[in-house]
Amino acid sequence: MSGDIPAVYHRPSKAIRKEASDVLMSGRVSGARLMTAVLMLIFCLMLSAFSAQAAMYAFELSIPIEGDDLPLWYLICEYLLAAAALIFAAAPGWAGFGELCGRLAEDHRFYGDSPEQPGIELRSLLRPWTRGNYIRHLRAGFAAIVDALCPISIIPLGYLAGRYIGWATPRPFDLPVVVLVNLAAWAIAAAVLRLISMFSLTTRLICEEKLGLFKAMAKSYAVNRTQRGRFFRLRLSFIGWWLLTFVSCGLALFWTLPLWGVSRRILGDELIRDFAPQSEDDIAAGRGYKDAETEEKESNTDNTENTEENTEKPEQENG
Fold first, then answer.
1. Measuring CA to CA, which residue among 186, 184, 190, 187 is closest to residue 236?
2. What percent of the residues of the chain are helix, what percent strand, and what percent coil, each to the nearest 5?
3. Nearest-angstrom CA–CA distance, 162 and 168
4. Domain ranges within the chain, ordered by starting residue
5. CB–CB of 114/1 below 8 Å?
6. Distances (CA, A) of 165 to 149, 161, 175, 178
7. What is the per-residue pLDDT for 292?
């Protein structure tokens, strides 16, 4: 068995991603836990697509409208129903997938060089929907979906808004207006992504510590408050992987999502391990976190005070 891994502070995103890649490529977990996570990923993708399409098809059958030009209220209701079906059916599975990615990192540390190997757990595929787990995983999955889709959805909305505003703008100002609106959408998406990164631990805290949604958000914000840029930089470091997933027509998704999940787990372990709040007031105020620089400053201050006290004692005795 391998020992505990010492805390590493302020590691760059590249190092965290490299460790996550080593975890996935390690024979200690890749033959079993990774296969379980991939099976959960396939199941969640199929369930998400089926639930959304089934809800849209049922809505079209219940409220039929002839013609290709559908009214705006009809489209809004249809997509809202599809989103609700996706959340209630597939959101717990996405939270379970995040748990399995976390167990990949844990098994890599726990088993070490032991000949004992973890096996494939098919029961884990249905665990998020079992009694006693569904509501908690539903909340966690909802937080995960908002965390993943909210910043991305701003970009196409900005593109559509730019097109409509550009059509209404007289020439030759239409093209600059379209460009400015799209640039504004990208800037807003980046700001929202940075803000949401403060709540990146919400899903994990709901599943593992069984906190409520708002308490988990408060603790996640407190943990990320003193190092608010780390999750944001980790997200930015995955842009190349998401582009590769898009170019490969989704085939690279079966590597990118586990890599992203394990990287989140590793970074979350570093932040949570060093966060030791004393009360709920400390969580709300963001107190309790000590990084390497703070601990070094405190130790240097204590050593300086002890040196001054030891210097004063002989002087008083001589006096």
1. 190
2. 75, 0, 25
3. 10
4. 21-287
5. yes
6. 24, 6, 10, 7
7. 43
